[in-house]
Write the structure tokens for this entry.
Amino acid sequence: MTKAVTRAIFHGGIAAVLLALLGTASVQVFAQGTAPSAGQAVAFDRTKGNCLACHTMRGSDVPSNVGPELNDMKARFPDRADLIAILQNEEARNPQTIMPSFGRNLILDHQEIEQIVDFLYSL
Amino acid sequence: MPNRRIRARASLRVAVLAAAVAVLGGAAPAPDKTDPLADQKAFQASFGERFPQVPFADFANGPYAVSAPMRKQWEDIMQFPPYDFALDEGKTAFETPFANGKSYADCFANKGIGVRQDFPYFDTKTGEVATLDGTINRCREANGEKPLPYQVGLMASITAYMAETSRDKPFDIKIPDDPRARAAYEDGKEYFYTRRGQLNFSCASCHVGAAGQRLRGDILAPAIGILAAFPIYRSDWGSMGTIDRRFTSCSAQMRSEPLPPQDKSYRDLEYFLSYMSNGVPISGPGTRP
Amino acid sequence: MTRVALAFMLLCSVPIAAHAADKSEAESAIAGAVKAEDAAGKLGNRWIPAEASLKAAKAAFTSGSWDAAVAEATRARLLAERAVEQSNEQKTAWRDAVIR
């Protein structure tokens, strides 16, 4: 845990330097508000989110039930940060989860996670 | 676990207090104590509770034991078992003498008939786990023949035949009173429960936690009895495959670089899984989607 | 954690956005990735995507594409470092998953 925090601070430091170099405006490109169709493409891509392997949701053609069905997401997860955290590293919240740590293990980048959350909020 | 270690260090400093606590409340069990039989009981009880409708012996049939629709498909497939050709090939190879006149039968107890359930075993001479597949190749080499590739082909056919002669015999894996055997068991147990690869899965993630659940069209097989059906004809492969083929493909699906077939970790894993399945009857060769 | 992802994303965009990499940068990026992969290998935990990125980095290096070599090698190193971290965490964490 301490190591993770140290790493975060270290990377955060690099991020701060780069932010200064690039200007904050370019970061806003990746903020919420992408079209759900972009997120759906990332979510359904077997090399990216591959969400249908484990979850059933609108657009599924297979009845996967390793994870819970994804519907009514806005009501179930009103705080966007919760969904981001689940996609980033669910193991931190539930040590025995089968949900891959998509962000932490670099399966998805920050922009892709934001896109998937936009898509999830359309369900 | 780090907490427990810190606690242990602290209790050393205040040994008297720790002793008093132990007397009053009972000491916490040592985390590294190996008790395979207790593990096995807990493992089997856990699957029994998860799948109360499944008779214990039926865990030899993997996903078909826990999914009625899949069982129906399986019964249809079994009208013409897709492993039949391998059985014929394996029987012929098994019965054909080597160039030196000896044969596989000379390398096994009971001439190799009805012995599948005793593998893998701990070989006290080498100090390592010996699998059926590894023993077949050692037999070949001892008799001047080249070893067979481990994952497909003749190795799958020969083990298919040897499994078929052992059908319905319950797994009977032994852990001798030898610290090396317990170490091999413990290594296999650690391998089974350890997360690895980019997807952050352990074997247990899919075959304990999510056993019986649907992953796209597939049903995740329960870990108990999972090796009883090997080798298997897998529709997904379009051919027969051995335990090594399944282990390496599982690793790849986790985005973890597979180990070489018969690597020590894979043999120890097979030892652990088979010991957990003691009592489940051999059903191999099998078919899987 | 978001900041880590953000840093990674920005790091990846640097060679394109800020400056072009040269041969020696590509060399040291690949050396760093190889070192991290060896550490993961010692723990028996090489990740397939790390191997793939390292291979792609070496191929890009051979064809003189320094930017691509740096980008792939950086990704390989980050993946391998994460693999090492995973293995180190699991040295004790696996016990919490054992059926008792």
Q: What stands out?
A: Residues 66-93 of chain C form the longest helix (28 residues). Chain C has one domain: 2-97.
